Each structure stands twice: as C-alpha cells, then as structure tokens.
C-alpha cells in the first residue's frame, strides 16, 4: 500500500505565499494605488487561508457561505485591484485554485479529513498531491538533475523567444504572413514558461527530507499526442485538466445528467471562460483577442468530439490542426504580455 504523502508546512507556505509575494513586489513597484492594492492582496491571502482551514462540507450552510466569500473575493479583485498584470495573474489563481480546487476539497471527505497543511497544499499547489509518491535520495537526485536540465533549456528558449517577439520586427521580415512566426515563437514562450513553473514546483517537492516527493510533470510531450483526446486529457497541462475534470466534467455528468459529448463540450466552454477572464482581467487586451481565446476552446471541443465520432486518430492531423488553430490561443496571451 502506497504511503500517504504528508506535505511539510514550509513547502505549503511557500506555495501559498510565493505567488502573493510576487504580486506584492510588482504592486510596490508599479501600482498607482499601492496601499489599496496591498490591502486587497492581504485580504485575499487571509480569506483563502481561513477558508481552507475551516473546510466545511460543500452541501452545508457554512460551505455555501465560504463559496460565496470566494466569489466575493474574485469580484473584489476584478473591481478593486488597479495593477492590471497582477489582477490577471491572481484571477486565474482564484478561479482555478480558490474556486474549482476549493469546491473539490469541500466535496471530498477523504481530502477534508487531512490536516491543514495538506489541504492547503492541495488547493494551492499546481499538481494533485494524491498522485505523488515518496522516493529515496538517489532517485530524487536523478529526477532533480533531469529537472535542472529541462529548466536550463526552457530558460534559454524563453529568453530567446521573448527577445525575438519584443525586439525583432517580424512584419518587415515576413510581411503578410507575420502571424505564423509570431504564433510559433509565442507558443514556444508559453510552453517554456509553463515548463519552468512546473519544474520549480516539482523540484521543491524533491527537497523534502528524509524522502523526496515525486509527482508527474504538468506536460508530457504534447507535441507527440496522436489524438486530441490524448493531447487534452493526458499531455497538456495535466493539473489544469484535473481541475476541469472535477470542477466541470464530473458535475455535468453526475448532477446535470449530460451525455459524455455534452459534458466534454461544456468543460471546454468552462476552460475557455477561465482563460478568457484571465487575459481580459488585465484591462488592456482587446475584445477581439478575448473572442479569439474563447473561440480556441470551442474549436478544440469540436475537434475532440468529431474525432470521437469518427474514431480516427492520426498524429499528423492532430498536430497539424493544433498548430493551425494555436494562433487563437497564443496571440491573446502575447497581447496580455504586451509583446
């Protein structure tokens, strides 16, 4: 029987306060209303910690009140925080972790029964600790070495693509087909950044003593996916897929009685809504880009469903259509990053 993972207090604290500490630094440097923004960030940190500590049953009065408080926190963030970059970042954090993961916590008695540190880790850490396992020092060092190599490559790619997008005039070089290199470099930038974030998270888990904690990576070579179902279900941003599975797909099947196809379509709509809200929250992304972002997930839903109906899987078709439609996802993020 696999030993139950126990997350150390210091590690859970790092993954709760890390993103908020970054937010505080950016606010202190760039926000026009520093004290107002800092007060909102402090409230969000306190509310999230207290809500996780209490963790009432979802179908109780207290559960309803705390879910309502989470919604209030999101509205306060969107309406009150003036620093657009941090408003966008924390919006995604609140919707995915403070929203869907928190509801998953309240509805799962097994997770609710765990101590505060592990519940905090479950809600705030990007991967599902239920799927992790302990490893000895030698295995941890080997895995850590692989992570470091991956991070070095990802950092080089991130710097190179950012420099290219920020300082190279692609329109002069490529003319009317500028969208193709912008999408390519933008996709590499997004993928490398996600790889770095995931590597830092998994690397911190390996530092647990005396046994390191090993969990699966967020990405599993999505460029080798032979079908859209495999791409979205097993290859791309697996923590996000776990959140959507428990937060959208299962409720649609269990509580709404939707068919598998309908539940899949609704799940993609929910994912599209989350990503669109995240990029729109900054305040400077255009309506056209928001529509593109939402359209991307609608298109992917149709790809998955059509593939399922015809029962055909082909790596060239999958990868080709992924790249052809990726501009709908990449370009709004580049506008968010002002690139």
Q: Poorly predicted ranges (pLDDT <50, ≥5 residues)?
A: none
Classify the helix fraction into a percent range.
Answer: over 70%
Q: Assign the structural class, choosing from mainly alpha, mainly beta, alpha/beta, alpha+beta, or little secondary structure.
A: mainly alpha
Count helical runs.
Answer: 15
Q: What portion of residues belong to β-strands?
A: under 5%
User: How many structurally independent domains?
Assistant: 3
Mean residue pLDDT? 90
Largest sheet, spatial ordering of strands: 1-2
The count of DSSP E runs of length 2 or more, i.e. the number of strands, is 2
Shape: globular
Distance from first to last alpha carbon:
50 Å
Q: How would a textbook summarize the main sheet?
A: 2 strands, antiparallel
Q: Rg, please?
A: 20 Å
Secondary-structure element pattern, one letter each: HHHHHHEHHHEHHHHHH
Topology, element by element:
Blueprint lengths: L8 H22 L3 H21 L6 H20 L3 H24 L1 H4 L3 H9 L8 E3 L1 H31 L2 H5 L4 H28 L5 E3 L13 H8 L2 H17 L5 H21 L6 H24 L4 H11 L1 H10 L3
Antiparallel strand pairs: 1-2
Helix pairs in contact: 1-2, 1-6, 2-3, 3-4, 4-6, 4-11, 4-12, 7-9, 9-15, 11-12, 12-13, 13-15
Report on this model:
The protein is 75% helix and 2% strand. The chain has helices at residues 9-30, 34-54, 61-80, 84-107, 109-112, 116-124, 137-167, 170-174, 179-206, 228-235, 238-254, 260-280, 287-310, 315-325, 327-336; strands spanning 133-135, 212-214. It starts with 8 loop residues before the first helix and ends with a helix. The model has no long low-confidence stretch (mean pLDDT 90). The chain folds into three domains: 9-125; 133-219; 220-339, no CATH class. Helix 1 (9-30) packs antiparallel against helix 2, helix 9 (179-206) crosses helix 15 and helix 11 crosses helix 12. It is mostly helical and 339 residues long. It has a two-stranded antiparallel ribbon with strand order 1-2. It has 15 helices and two strands. The relative contact order is 0.10.
């Amino acid at each position: 029987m696999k030993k139950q993972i126990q997350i150390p207090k210091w590690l859970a604290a790092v993954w709760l306060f890390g993103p908020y500490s970054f937010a505080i630094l950016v606010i202190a440097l760039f926000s026009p209303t520093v004290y107002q923004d800092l007060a909102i960030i402090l409230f969000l940190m306190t509310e999230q910690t207290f809500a996780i500590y209490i963790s009432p049953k979802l179908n109780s009065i207290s559960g309803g009140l705390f879910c309502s408080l989470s919604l209030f926190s999101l509205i306060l963030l969107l309406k009150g925080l003036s620093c657009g970059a941090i408003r966008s970042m924390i919006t995604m954090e609140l919707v995915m972790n403070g929203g869907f993961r928190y509801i998953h916590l309240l509805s799962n008695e097994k997770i609710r029964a765990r101590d505060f540190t592990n519940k905090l880790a479950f809600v705030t850490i990007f991967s599902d600790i239920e799927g992790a396992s302990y490893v000895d020092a030698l295995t941890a060092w080997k895995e850590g070495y692989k992570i470091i190599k991956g991070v070095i490559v990802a950092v080089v790619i991130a710097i190179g693509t950012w420099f290219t997008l920020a300082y190279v005039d692609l329109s002069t070089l490529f003319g009317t087909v500028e969208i193709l290199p912008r999408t390519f470099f933008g996709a590499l930038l997004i993928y490398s950044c996600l790889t770095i974030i995931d590597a830092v998270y998994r690397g911190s888990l390996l530092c647990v003593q005396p046994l390191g904690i090993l969990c699966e990576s967020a990405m599993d070579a999505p460029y080798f996916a032979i079908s859209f179902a495999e791409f979205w279900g097993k290859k791309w941003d697996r923590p996000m897929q776990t959140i959507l599975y428990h937060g959208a797909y299962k409720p649609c099947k269990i509580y709404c009685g939707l068919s598998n196809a309908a539940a899949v379509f609704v799940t993609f709509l929910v994912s599209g809504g989350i990503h669109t809200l995240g990029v729109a929250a900054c305040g400077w992304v255009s309506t056209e880009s928001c529509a593109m972002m939402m359209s991307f997930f609608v298109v992917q839903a149709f790809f998955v469903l059509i593939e399922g109906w015809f029962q055909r899987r082909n790596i060239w078709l999958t990868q080709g259509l992924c790249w052809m439609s990726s501009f709908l996802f990449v370009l709004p993020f580049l506008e968010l990053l002002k690139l």
